[in-house]
Amino acid sequence: MFTPFSVTGCSLKLLRTGERGIVTFCKSQDERILNELISIGVTPGTTITLEQNFPLFLIKIENTSLALDTESIQAIYVRIIHH
């Protein structure tokens, strides 16, 4: 009756600690947030690991760890990498 499905893309905010995703797009009404994300290397195709989600969001891009605010995290959409 029901067809199985899986989430292939979602907001980075929904990832669990340790999960990885490939950025598919960034979406925000605030151009400042989009420019900031581009300047730190968050662009489509970039692999991101969510290292921590409380008390702040800590992401890892290549060998660099960065702390981001909730608005920035919500603007990033990823395709989850399953291993």
Automatic annotation (TrEMBL):
Iron found in the keyword field: yes
InterPro entries on file: Fe-transptr_FeoA-like (IPR007167), FeoA_core_dom (IPR038157), Transcriptional_repressor_C (IPR008988)
UniProt GO molecular function: transition metal ion binding
Gene3D superfamilies, sorted: 2.30.30.90
Pfam families, A to Z: FeoA
Superkingdom: Bacteria
Domain Ferrous iron transporter FeoA-like, first and last residues per copy: 10-80
Keywords: Iron
Statement: the UniProt record of this protein carries the keyword Thylakoid: no
Protein's name in the database: FeoA, ferrous iron transport protein A
Lineage: Bacteria, Bacillati, Cyanobacteriota, Cyanophyceae, Nostocales
